[in-house]
Amino acid sequence: MRAESTGGIWAIVDHTGDEVEDVALELLGQARELADRLGLSAAAVLLGDDVRGLTPSLGQYGADTVYLAENPLLAAYNPDAYTPLLADLIRRQRPSIVLWGATDQGRDLAPRVAARLGTGLASNCTRVDLSEEGLLAMTRPVYGGKASCNVVCPQTRPQMATLQPGAVTAKRPDPSRQAQVIAVDVSLSSQSLRLRLEEVIKIPPSDLDVTEAEVIVAGGRGAGSAEGFRLIEQLAHLMGAAVAASRPVVDAGWAPYERQVGLSGKTVAPRLYVACGISGVNHHVVGMRDSRAVVAIDQDPQAPIFQIADVKIVGDLHQVLPSLIERLRRLRQERGTTEDEEILRTLANVSAARQVS
Q: Do 84 and 163 lie in a common domain?
């Protein structure tokens, strides 16, 4: 679209039906910041079925307006329904900027909508800012993550970007904030949908994309070998965590590139990040520094990773992890689950047993 944009800064909301995804709250904080700097409004766009109960939190996290589209045919993501609905809404309201999460849904939906609107899209961005001209400057990795570039969209509108989960930090909610909720007219029929959802298959947490995982166990050069890296995978399985890796592990072929966290890999912000045999050079830390709790296991007491760790275990992971795995197995057998608090308590006990200062 080349028309003048007047509709502010938008964030497209990912949700599970009864809970807003963290990436949506991160996008709202970014939209709020950009809107304040440009003197515009910030809006959230929420599609689903019976999801009005999610709108108060969107206001508290920064939205001035929530565009709410509800219909039983929107309960599960279907590009045949979501694409024309969003494209039409954007044409009518003409936002200047639209932000999407670089999630499975966002990576599928954003380019479809961009193509319908005839505008550009910068995908998988690690950062967005404003240029001196007030344009959206979108930073994204290139050359397989070995470099990054800044992208601007000077002519067509809206300016659109998908941001990696964890690339920005969600703002603190303001309970006093309330958003205006605008109901969006939804005209859909099942006959108009070419795609049909037959089944939802849940994959094991260890197979999740690391950018979407709530708990991550990451292995580094300290694993020593592909066989040593299997300990990382065993621990992740017991914790219900996704498996991640540092660049040396990926370069050695012990883990695939899509598991790499760091400057040339992915940016993550899980509730819990367990770094095993990772020294913590800046190249890796920039990809996980926004984790809410960090556990570090490394045999070098001066390893940089300990500077950001909440629980520090000094020792060879080949000696530490078997003991930890055994304790967690017993915990799972006794209680049937391993919650974050129990995992941290177990890790802290292992740390104390090894007399970590």
A: yes
